[in-house]
Design brief:
Length: 143
């Protein structure tokens, strides 16, 4: 009887987490999906990477005015293991560093498209993108 209760609890947890058709799944599928969900929960609880951002006070005011959030940089830093960002105002983009090496660029609009699905600033001068095979951040709209 305890096994049935556990499966029903797992089924309810899957339904709460947004898994479709959780009530119609077989026991084996429920157990498998629940394990997958538990693994993703463990990954989300990993400690956040520490990183630094080099910006001026004027740039910070600009970010506040356009609605750029620090969490956007944190998510990129965690996902791609960047440890430093340096803002270049004329490109409205951040240089992304690993150690002392610049490895990528990410623009304010790239960050906003990833997070809120719209551009938040007008950029007149763009940076020279890296070659496709050297890009770390894969964005579908990049050439």
């Amino acid at each position: 009887m305890e096994h049935i209760v556990n499966v029903e609890q797992m089924r309810a947890e899957l339904k709460e987490s947004g898994v479709k058709q959780a009530m119609n799944m077989k026991e084996e599928t429920i157990i498998k999906k629940h394990k997958e969900l538990s693994k993703t929960d463990e990954v989300e609880q990993e400690p956040k990477a520490s990183f630094e951002v080099n910006i001026t006070k004027a740039d910070q005011v600009f970010f506040d005015n356009i609605g750029l959030k620090a969490e956007w940089l944190a998510s990129i830093a965690n996902q791609y293991d960047f440890d430093r960002f340096a803002y270049v105002h004329k490109f409205k983009a951040f240089r992304c560093y690993r150690g002392n090496n610049q490895v990528e660029w990410v623009s304010i609009n790239d960050l906003s498209l990833i997070n809120i699905k719209k551009e938040i600033t007008n950029t007149l001068m763009t940076f020279q993108p890296l070659q496709k095979d050297k890009q770390i951040i894969k964005l579908p709209w990049r050439k």
